[in-house]
Amino acid sequence: MASKIRTFPGGGVHPHDYKFLSNDIPIRNAPIPPVAVIALQQHMGAPAECLVAPGDVVREGMLIGKAQGVFSANVHASIPGKVKELRDIYLATGIRSKAVVIEFEGEFEGGGTAEANWRSKDPQDLMELIRDQGIVGLGGATFPTPIKFSIREGNKIEFFVINGVECEPFLTSDHRLMVEKTESLLTGVEIVRRILSPQRVLIGVEANKPDAIEALNREIANSGLDIEVVALKTKYPQGDEKQLLKALIHREVPSGGLPLDIGAVVSNAGTVYAIYEAVVLGKPLIERIVTVTGPALKNPANFKVRIGTPVGNLLEECGGFISAPGKIVAGGPMMGFALADPDVPVVKGTSGILALSEKQTRSGLPTPCIGCGRCIEACPFGLSPTTLYKWIDHQEYDEAIAAGLMDCKECGCCAYVCPARIPLVQGMKLGKIMKKKG
Amino acid sequence: MADVKTSWSARVTVSPHLHEGSTTAKIMISVIICLLPAGVWGVFVFGLYSLYVVLVSVAASVLTEFVITRLQGRFTLNDWSAVLTGVLIGYNMPPSVPLYIPVIASVFAIAVVKMAFGGLGRNWMNPALAGRVFVTFSWTGFMTRWQSPLNWSADAVTSASVLGFVKSGLMDFEGSVRGPIEFLALKGFPTSGVGTAGGGGLPALLAPLGRIFPAGYGDLFLGNIPGCIGEVSALLLLLGSIYLFAKKIITWEIPVSYIGSFSLLIWFLGGRPFGGGVFTGDVLFHLMAGGLMLGALYMATDMVSSPLTRRGMIIYGVGAGFLTFLIRIYGSFPEGVSLAIIIMNMFVPLINRATRPVVFGYVKEGKE
Known about the structure:
Radius of gyration of chain A: 21 Å
Structural class of chain B: mainly alpha
CATH superfamily of the domain at 2-23 and 113-280 in chain A: NADH-ubiquinone oxidoreductase 51kDa subunit
Mean pLDDT of chain B: 88
Low-confidence stretches of chain A: none
Largest interface: A-B, 76 and 51 residues
Shape of chain B: globular
Structural class of chain A: alpha/beta
Helix content of chain B: 40-55%
Strand content of chain B: under 5%
Order of helices and strands of chain A: EEEEEEEEHHEHHEHEHEHEEHEEEHHHHH
Shape of chain A: globular
Order of helices and strands of chain B: HHHHHHHHHHHHHHHH
Oligomer: heterodimer
Number of helices of chain A: 13
Mean pLDDT of chain A: 93
Strand order of the largest sheet of chain A: 1-14-13-17-15-16
Helix content of chain A: 25-40%
Distance between the termini of chain B: 59 Å
Radius of gyration of chain B: 23 Å
Number of domains of chain B: 3
């Protein structure tokens, strides 16, 4: 068995995964926030158009933001109540967004209409349902799922891949989902199968989640589904869809291309579960699973959280800090965003909230590059981060682009290994911004 | 309930938020520590004066960097690279060299080769080697005056290193020998007799070495030969490098390609000066008699002045092996390691350009 275990070939790092803090803790509902702050820009693409005004009464699951155009997504009220105000807020990513602030009041009436009979539906109708319910990729990039599933004429889908890798340290939300909601998750897979009609369906899971692999295999055997569970050698950033496809089907997505270009569609396990909820339960994307963990936190947890809950509420629900945290991070420690403000709300892409210890995040001042080449070794995309950084540092952005800057996914492997502590990822981000500015 | 808001940390930086823990200073300190055994051995066989040589080199390097960075309004000594440069300069000095020579070598290394180009990371040549080569050409007499190791009998005095003795001896040699070791014996080059009956100056517990190494090689392996302070003990240099390999501070590419290419070439053509045919070269002798171990393991592997990618490292190592061979066998110097490495240092930007990694998603045409 051990010899069969796969991973992507080039680069990557092996940080301590810290999954033990929360991987045995069952998912439970986070408290309903007294005030939910629901951003209208929770997804990649155009922000949703606001449909409510202050004073309006909203129901749970009511559409409050309508997708503007195709490359956008609907936004729904996550709690019933009254719209207090429309406010401009900063999201965890630092992006500024308009947000609907809802004060909780009234009753939960239960969501939309359940549609247990999805098998009789047309793929087009299922797609429509997914679009209506505001489903986006929950792995972090929040790419609108309907666009991902829109296959151009003549494009054949060979592979549908469910990304259960969760390669970021600390995060266990997908892990718990695969263990606890196995049956629903697989129903979600079957819904997607109906939409895409792929030749093969694969689930990639890293070997540090043996219970998830076992649960999936057991459920697949019980229900006789044609789904392959592939255990992957634990290595960051295997959850990147391009690396995952390389590991699973040994094909490289062309530079600047999409998985579709090699006949594959990849969806995060959380997304597939959201699709199940959207189609079978008729529930819009108003909740997601968030791992709240970290060595500075008293009681780590996996919560089912209403979108718009301030992260401070979740940290308090975990009993607060046991030591002064060095950083609070939304997302994983490798690609997540450090937070300055406890009122930042959970959005569709928030997979975790981490309270990292002071010691872990002690960074040290940058020193000159000593040319050790470790960043090149670590880069899963075959780039030379040190070279890119030098171009960017010298404001030669065109040279940086020519050296492959746009192929950088900011996974952080380079900065993770850099002994000179050079902020390589920061450099890459700057280079991309400067390129956009022209 | 703990108040999250009041204990909120405002520290915000760009991802990643974790680090594996390495620092430049840790790398430099590790190399220094791994070099220590070979230096202790040098002091043991050549006497206390050689310790002063090393300490003066370190002091001069550190002081030079301190003064220059002070003038620039910065402080860089905490990266420990100046100390390492000083140690390497000291190790590359003959044991009885006048103390002003390592001082000059250190000042040249730090001020001219390192700081003039912008300090650590911008030195386009290994500073220690550049310093050594500078003083070798300027004070050749002092830099080629060697001292007998302690273990030899008191009357055994030599003015030549092993490689130098063989090279100059061969010039007017008419007879025929099978190789350098036989040549040394023929010409009466003193040996300690490690492993032979009677023993020489070394303790009897080293006797088993004689069974591993044929007579004469034991001295080379241990470092019981005249030479630079830190280069003589192949054994201790190898031992020290194990930690560096384990910690991935050095990777196999440079040492293996350097030593490998050099060994092949020596085997192929190294026997010619002794009147032998091809494939009669004495590889073992050439690996241990000079500065190759120190050079290949600790100096060619200097991160700043070596290539970035593994492919590049192999090209660089092979080049250094070829040049070392060329200088030793066909050049006018008995030793070629320093020159070979600094010449290859100059090719590093070119090698880096030629060995850029292949970017993900650029699959070769016609390959599925």
